[in-house]
Design goal:
5 strands, 162 residues, 5 helices, globular, alpha/beta, Nucleotidyltransferase, domain 5
Amino acid sequence: MIIMGIDPGFAITGYGIVKYEQNKFSPLEYGAVQTLVGTPFAQRLLKLDDEISLIIERFKPDAISVEELFFNKNIKTAIAAAHGRGVVLTAAARSGAEVFEYTPLQVKQAVVGYGRAEKAQVQQMVKAILNLSQVPKPDDVADALAVAVCHGHSAKMARLGF
């Protein structure tokens, strides 16, 4: 199964493409779509849609997993990030792939085994699970890979009837 994980935003959207077979994850590609400050907001969202759509088209994932937003500080930033998430969900739905959404708590539980794990713990587990030489940067990329791993584990449990 090819899984695309996405940590959505509008300034930086992390993505990770992994292959999951026989209980093993292999990274295929990961990176970030970044938009420039000062660019009109609508143009930033259009760039996000264009680039995420191209990545989806190139890899044709079986599943696209998207992290739900969690903000408890700046409502203006949260709304802008939610716009980016909407663009990502639209591109994912347009592709015809199955789309799944996971909370940060679910991602941490699936990757680390503890829903209140620290960001550094999640990043180190992503590095270990994917056999990477270093933690992917920026953080949004490591988060996207964690969302992909979360889906792999969750899909396996669903197949087992849990």
